Give the backbone structure.
Amino acid sequence: MNKENYRFFLSKYLLHVHPVAETLSYCLMPNHFHFICRMRDMPAVSDVWFEKQRVPASQKGILEGDAVYLFLSKQLSNFQNSYTKAFNKVYKRRGNLFMRPSKQKRVGGERYLRSLIKYVHLNPVNACICRLPEEWMHSSYRHFISEAGESPIISQAVLEEYFDDVENFIAFHQVGTGF
């Protein structure tokens, strides 16, 4: 993958997933990707669904039960399918781009979430692509430690909520090697 592929991949993510999920961490690798997301509140998710369905404002409500899960799954599917179609067109290829269906799992507990964020950011280090997580251009790690401002898909609240500040975030990533 080249820089433009990574940029385009993120643009598709922003289009399809960002409206329904807040991204806590991500890392794009040459052969796979990781996103740690938190679903937005039900009114926000419902608004996106009703907008996509072109439901008149007078008939809008709140999605419930299986409808929420199905909509979120559809958004993830649309994200991957739209990227695959564009990639295949540019590179004059056909067929699947992703070998396996994406995995989603519920994260239980703050400690586990912090470990997952570290795992995601250390992925390129553990794959021997770079020596330090800040060297990998295609992850959220650089957004967390940069003074340049917040990425459109990274919540500054993650630092405050789970690490207190940038110094603790960096120190947490330096403890141990990997997950």
About this structure: The helical segments are 3-16, 42-53, 66-90, 110-126, 141-145, 157-163, 166-174.
